[in-house]
Amino acid sequence: MQFDFNSQTPIYLQIARQLEDAVFTGIYPEETQIPSTTELSVSLQINPATVLKGMNILVDEGVIYKKRGLGMFVTEGAVEIIKNKRQTGFFENYIAPLIAEANKLGLSEKEVIALIERGEKNEH
Question: 56 and 15 in contact (C-beta within 8 Å)?
Answer without folding.
Answer: no
